[in-house]
Each structure stands twice: as structure tokens, then as C-alpha cells.
């Protein structure tokens, strides 16, 4: 195929940005629409590089020869002259000199048609939905977010650590693990699981590299049937040494702002699409939120705010000792603070064993970042760096101390105050784009009872 070789020389985005008029170009892509007329026929091709299609103009002879095979979805390669276009929709078009059908697509049975269909329907054909406008934009944004996450950390000297997917411990101590087995034998001579977080493994590295992060898939066997929970999702977990909770929060805020603004700048057409078709007004709200300092409250203050809300009935009761449910998180972010808010210093009984106990013995130096429309997108903390306190907490949580021998070693050999956070990649994408269901921002969603493809 001539269009490839060392790269996508004539990718549609590049063509539209600056091909020289009168030059010969070769375009590969799939038919988005085709229109056949007596004198002139048009085919619009997309190749995934942007929201734009390129218009190909066919002569009556070319149209006649290929008409039956140029329906929506067909894969084609066109060579022609890059010419000023008569139509108002585009400045340039390809006047075809050669048209090749690379892969046929039967219009009768191809499930992706021009007519809009529901996102629910498209989930049943997740292998084909990347060919729709919505999923083209979603997965381009997912790619851009991921790229900027790496760029953000790499520019700041963080080391990317590949923490294991198969693990021996429950990093969150929440008992929501998928066990890894081959037949009845534990393959590794002991119980192993799909990781629910790379945090404990990345902590070993932070005590040697100062600034690290892990970014990869994580797994939770939790029976949460919501639009924000998946059994397999991607998490970004930075960890910093010689640092306290304030440092963790400052990093999280810088990180979210940089990654979001850079992604919006990289994908303007995709965000225009989301703003028109998915959630009008979302982009302005996101930009507004990113332009201001994020709010910050303690869990105690948050409970007080919620307790003072008049004329609202909660599904889960509000008051001392409450745990913040999604409805409370959303109230705080959407109605009270009207933007992202860090909630800090949760009761220790509500949070994981590794979080640093505050001097009062009741709360921990933890934080969740809540955003409008979603609720929690980040969970993080300063870690318990004191050996005796950590040992006591592991026992209090009813976890097997011996399993955490290596984690405790970190507190024996050059321990430091340190901390970090975990960001749910999908939830960030949902907040940015306005997509409402986590199943629609994951290439292959896995949720309780569902793992097709
Ligand atoms: O709050 P979580 O459980 O925190 C941790 O796992 C820590 N080890 C992170 C750290 O401090 N290094 O999860 C972090 C984030 C949540 O805020 C949420 O955005 C996302 O991961 N998340 C999920 N996303 C989709 N589906 C699920 N089932 C999720 N569970 C957590
Ligand atoms: Mg959490």
C-alpha cells in the first residue's frame, strides 16, 4: 500500500492542513458517505486521524465502475489531484485518477449505518463502534489524555514504573480481587490476583527514585452496577517521596489542569463534537473549573455543609460518622462548590490501611477529588511511614501482617514521609467529554455479568 511505508504520509489530517494544490496525493480510508450523480459523484473518506473527511470526486466512468462497492464502510485507496473544491464544505478535494476497493463492505449487513443509533445498541457491537463519530472522538481523546499524562510526568522527571498486573496482595485491603488460577493449582505456589492498584508496588520504587508513577489497567471484582464503575479500568498513580498531603494535593491539581487543557488544545474538533452532540455546555463548564483554584474542605466541614442543606431528602442519611455517597459527593461538587473540590482528612475507619493517621488518632491524611457530574475521580493520601503505626493499622484492618513483610521493610530502611494518588482514567475522560457511561469510554468494557469481545 503506497500511502504508508515509513508513516501515514497522506493521513487526512495532514492533507487538510497543508497539501500543495495541484499535487498528486494518495488517500486510504473508509467510506463515510457516498453520493452518485449523473455528472459527478462524491465519496467522503475518513481515516481516524480527525473528525474530518476528505472529499473524493469521481468521474462518471469511475463512479459507474465502483458504485456498487463504494457504500458506507468500504475500505478504499484513492490517488488523485489535490484541487480547490467548488463546494462550500471544504476548501480542497481529491479529483480521483485511480480508485481501488481494498475491502468490500456489504451495505445490507453492515450494522453501522448513517442513521444515528443509541450508545446502548452500539455497546453490543463494540468491535464496530470505533467507526462511528462518537467513538472516533472518544478514543482520540482517550489517546490524547494518555499521552499528556505521560508527558506531564516525564517533563517533571518522574520515572514510569511497570507495576505487576498479577499480584499477591490486596493493595486496597477491600477484598475485591479477581483470583488468578490455572485449574485448581495456584500457578505461583500461592494465591495471586489481578491487581486492584499498583500503589504498594510503586511505593517500593518511590523510596529509591523520589518521583514515580504507574499507569496501567487495574481490576476490581466489585458488584457496583453504576455508570461510573468498571471491573477493568485504567489508573494513573503517581507517588512522591519527602512529601506530605499538601504536596500530593498540589501535584494532583497541577496534573489535572495541565492534562485537561493540553488535551482540549490537541483535540479541538473532537471537543466541538462533544459540545454539539453529547453534552452542550460541558466544555465551557470544564474550562471554567480549570481556570480557578480547586476548592478544599475537610471531611468534617463537608459533613457540616451537608447537614445544613435544607429541603432535600437524601437516599443515604447525613450526619456525624456518615460516609460520603455519590449523591453527597455530587452535591458538594455541583451545588455547593460548583467545581472540583478536594475533601481531606476522612475518618480512618472509612479509608485504606496505608493512609497516614492524623495526630488526633481519628482521621487520616487522605483526599478525594470530587468533580461535578461524576463525584470522585481521584483518591489519594499521605502514606503511613511509621513502622509501629502501620503494623498496628494492618492488624486493625484484619489483614495478614506477614503478607505485607516487604511493604513494612520500606518503613525499616530509610523511610520517608511520602504520598500519592490514583486517578481513574475513564472518569477523567467522562468529565472532560460529557460522556455519561463508563462503558462508552472504555474500548472493551468489562462490568459484572458482561465481557463480550
Ligand atoms: O480511590 P481508589 O480506590 O484509590 C486507590 O486505588 C489508591 N491506591 C490510589 C493511590 O493513592 N495510589 O481508586 C482511585 C480512583 C478512583 O478515584 C476512581 O477514579 C477510580 O480510581 N476507580 C474506578 N474507576 C472505574 N471503575 C471502578 N470500579 C473504579 N474504582 C476506582
Ligand atoms: Mg476511592
Please characterize this protein's 3D structure:
The chain is of the alpha+beta class and 453 residues long. The protein folds into 2 domains: 6-110, OB fold (Dihydrolipoamide Acetyltransferase, E2P) (Beta Barrel), CATH 2.40.50; 129-440, Bira Bifunctional Protein, Domain 2 (BirA Bifunctional Protein, domain 2, 2-Layer Sandwich). Helix content is 31%, strand content 23%. The protein contains 13 helices and 16 strands. A hairpin with a 7-residue loop joins β4 and β5 (92-103). α4 crosses α6 (245-266), α4 (133-155) crosses α7 (268-278) and α4 (133-155) packs across α13. The model is unreliable at 1-6 (pLDDT under 50). Bound molecules: 4-amino-1,4-dioxobutan-2-aminium adenosine-5'-monophosphate and magnesium ion. Residues 171-172, 197, 199, 220, 222, 229-230, 233, 235, 237, 376-381, 420-422, 424, 426-427, 438 line the site of 4-amino-1,4-dioxobutan-2-aminium adenosine-5'-monophosphate.
Amino acid at each position: 500500500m503506497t500511502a504508508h511505508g515509513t508513516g501515514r504520509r497522506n493521513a487526512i489530517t495532514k492533507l487538510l492542513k497543508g497539501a500543495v494544490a495541484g499535487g498528486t496525493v494518495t488517500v486510504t480510508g473508509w467510506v463515510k458517505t457516498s453520493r452518485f450523480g449523473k455528472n459527478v459523484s462524491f465519496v467522503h473518506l475518513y481515516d481516524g486521524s480527525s473528525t474530518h473527511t476528505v472529499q473524493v470526486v469521481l468521474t462518471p466512468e469511475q463512479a459507474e465502475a465502483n458504485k456498487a462497492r463504494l457504500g458506507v464502510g468500504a475500505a478504499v485507496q484513492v490517488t488523485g489531484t489535490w484541487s480547490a473544491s467548488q463546494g462550500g464544505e471544504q476548501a480542497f478535494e481529491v479529483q480521483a485518477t485511480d480508485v481501488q476497493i481494498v475491502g468490500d463492505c456489504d451495505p445490507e449487513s453492515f450494522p453501522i449505518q448513517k442513521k444515528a443509533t443509541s450508545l446502548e445498541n452500539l455497546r453490543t457491537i463494540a468491535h464496530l463502534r470505533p467507526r462511528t463519530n462518537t467513538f472516533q472522538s472518544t478514543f482520540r481523546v482517550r489517546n490524547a489524555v494518555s499521552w499528556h499524562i505521560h508527558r506531564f510526568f516525564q517533563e517533571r522527571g518522574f520515572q514510569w514504573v511497570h507495576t505487576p498486573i498479577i499480584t499477591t496482595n490486596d493493595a486496597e485491603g477491600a477484598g475485591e480481587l479477581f483470583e488468578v488460577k490455572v485449574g485448581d493449582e495456584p500457578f505461583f505456589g500461592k494465591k495471586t490476583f489481578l491487581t486492584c492498584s499498583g500503589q504498594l508496588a510503586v511505593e517500593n520504587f518511590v523510596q529509591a527514585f523520589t518521583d514515580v508513577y504507574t499507569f496501567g489497567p487495574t481490576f476490581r471484582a466489585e458488584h457496583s452496577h453504576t455508570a461510573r464503575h468498571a471491573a477493568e479500568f485504567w489508573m494513573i498513580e503517581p507517588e512522591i517521596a519527602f512529601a506530605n498531603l499538601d504536596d500530593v494535593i498540589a501535584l494532583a491539581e497541577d496534573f489535572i489542569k495541565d492534562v485537561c487543557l493540553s488535551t482540549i488544545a490537541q483535540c479541538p474538533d473532537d471537543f466541538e463534537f462533544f459540545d454539539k452532540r453529547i453534552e452542550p455546555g460541558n466544555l465551557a463548564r470544564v474550562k471554567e473549573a480549570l481556570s480557578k483554584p480547586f476548592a478544599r474542605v475537610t471531611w468534617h466541614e463537608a459533613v457540616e455543609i451537608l447537614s445544613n442543606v435544607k429541603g432535600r431528602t437524601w437516599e443515604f442519611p447525613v450526619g456525624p460518622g456518615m460516609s460520603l455517597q455519590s449523591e453527597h459527593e455530587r452535591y458538594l461538587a455541583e451545588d455547593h462548590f460548583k467545581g472540583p473540590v478536594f475533601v481531606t482528612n476522612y475518618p480512618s475507619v472509612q479509608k485504606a490501611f496505608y493512609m497516614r493517621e492524623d495526630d488526633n488518632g481519628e482521621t487520616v491524611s487522605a483526599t478525594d477529588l470530587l468533580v461535578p457530574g461524576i463525584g470522585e475521580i481521584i483518591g489519594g493520601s499521605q502514606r503511613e511511614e511509621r513502622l509501629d503505626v502501620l503494623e498496628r493499622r494492618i492488624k486493625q484492618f484484619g489483614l495478614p501482617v506477614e503478607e505485607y513483610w516487604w511493604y513494612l521493610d520500606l518503613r525499616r530502611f530509610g523511610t520517608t514521609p511520602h504520598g500519592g494518588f490514583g486517578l481513574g482514567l475513564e472518569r477523567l475522560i467522562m468529565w472532560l467529554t460529557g460522556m455519561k457511561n463508563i462503558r462508552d469510554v472504555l474500548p472493551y468494557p468489562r462490568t459484572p455479568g458482561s465481557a463480550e469481545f
